[in-house]
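Students often ask why we bother encoding 3D structure as a string. The short answer is that it lets us treat folding as translation between two languages. Here is a chain of 105 residues written in the first language.
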Amino acid sequence: MTENDGGTRMIRSELIQKIADDNPHLYQRDVEKIVNTVFDSIVGALAEGKRVELRGFGAFSVKKRDGRVGRNPRTGEAVDVEEKHVPFFKTGKLLRDRLNGNQEV
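And here it is in the second language, the structure alphabet:
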């Protein structure tokens, strides 16, 4: 895992390597294709406005943020912020339980 601001994070290449290490019967290039296909499928579904649910892990969806008037932090000048769509992730119960120390999953 890569160090980041005192914590750790996992980047795509580390995820691919971990899966490949845990599954020696698979070629790393095949694992990379699988991971990329999963991520591309999630992104594609979200781009179409669909919700993606991975039971026990969580659900990805898209939320609409209405346009508003914001402020330029340097000048304090009013700035129009356009409406936009942002990805949203809601954790599943099993993931929440595991993060909060409940190992009875």
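Translate back mentally: The first strand starts at residue 2 and ends at 4. Keep this in mind for the problem set.
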